[in-house]
Amino acid sequence: MSKLFARIAGFFSNRTFAGADKAGNRYFTKKEEIDGILKEKRWVEFKGEQDPTSVPVEWICWLNRQRKRAPTPEEIMELESRRERVRLNVALLKKEEEERKAREGSKKAVRSGKVGGPDLKSFIRQFPSASEGPKRHRKRKENHFQSLQNQQDLVHPISQERGNHQHEKKCTSNGYFPHHDA
Question: Cα Rg for the chain, rounded, in angstroms?
Fold first, then answer.
């Protein structure tokens, strides 16, 4: 019990503040000796609710030891301004894309006399109507059945004379395979 208490007391006594993020989360480090090896532990204390999604990427990298040093306030400000520039660029590109589509849509509407949008008639033409669908399928079945009959008529003539039907082909769902009597 005393070891547990000592660990808890040591946890709070010799920790070093590494920094804080925009959300108010605070990051700490502590060096301790385990099995004769000096190891550094890193952790975050969340402000309010424990929400791991509120931890910025640069701090995640530090916590996972992908960075040796904690991010500096200057670095954090630079990264935030870069993220904001990227957000603005994305918004600008989206707006330009919407304007381009609107211009192209108005050109199509003038040419075809329709409002821009998907061409549903060409889409629907891909699929057979209810009246022609079963006919096509039935015709395909009839052709398949006729080819089966033709294949069965082509049994080797010598095997028919002798009554040996080992080489006769039987129809299966996968095709034709030789039939062997056991």
Answer: 38
